[in-house]
Amino acid sequence: MLSSPASLDPAVAKVPESKEESSEAVESGPGPDWILVIDVEATCEDGKAFNFFNEIIELPCILLNRNGDKVAEFFTHVRPTLNPRLTAYCTRLTGVTQAQVDGAPTWPKALEQFEAWLIAQGVADKDMLDPKVTSAEIECRRNKVLIACDGPWDVRDFLRRSCDLDHIPTPFYFKRFVDLRKYTQDTVYRSYNERRGGLDGLLAYWGLTFQGRPHSGLDDSRNIARVVQKMVAHGYVLGANWERTSKSGHRHLQMLKKDLVWQRGREWAIGADGQ
Q: Based on the number of CB atoms within 10 Å of its own CB, is 40 exposed (0-12), middle (13-18) or buried (19 or more)?
C-alpha cells in the first residue's frame, strides 16, 4: 500500500502465546473456506492525498485455504486511464515502470482475469460471480470467501472505487473484508495500536520481518499472507470487520475541473465488536 511505516512500540511487538492472552473471545464458527490476501498498488504523486485519483496499477492476490496453506498466487499489472503516465515518484515508490503498465490490461479486463482465476482455483463459480443471483445457497457460499488486507484502504478506497469508475457492479468479495490491523487490536491484543507501524509494525507484532521489496504489491501481499498464517496457526478464526452498508452510500465520484475527486462519506461501517 501507499502508507509509510513508522516504528512499532517494542512493548507490543510480540506474538500472543495462547488464546488466553486475547483481550476478548476469539470469533466462533467455522470461518472462511478461502482467504484472498490483497494489497494493491496505485498511481500516486508526492505530497498528494485524496485530491489525486489513485488508479490501481498492480493487482496481486495470495490465495490461502481455511488452514492457512498457500494454494496459489495471482498477479497482473493494470493500465491506468485517467492519468496514464506514471509519475517519477510512483515509479520510485512501487518499482512499476511505464512500459509495464502500457502493456497491461485496463481495470475491467484485469478484473475479468482475476475472476477467471478464482473460477479456475475453485474459489467461485459463475453463479457466485453473477450479482443477479441471490439465492440463500449462493449467499452462503459467497460468505465462505473473505478478503484480508492490511488496513481498510485497499478494498474501501481503491478496489471498490475502481469498479465505481468503470460502472462495474460490486463483486461480492469486495462487499466485506477483514482489516488485519483492526482485527489484531480488537480481537488479539488491545495494546497493539493499529494506527502505528504500518505493515512493518503488524509483522513485528506477530514476530515477523518484511521479506522482499516494500510497496511491491505482490511482496506486500505475500507478507500479509504470512500474518494470516500466523493468526490461523494460533487458532484465530478470521471474520469480516468491514462491510459495505448500502449500494451507493454517500460516496460518489465528482468531476471538478477535469479532475476526479473522491468524496469521503459513511458508505462503510466497522463491525461494532470488531468482527
A: buried
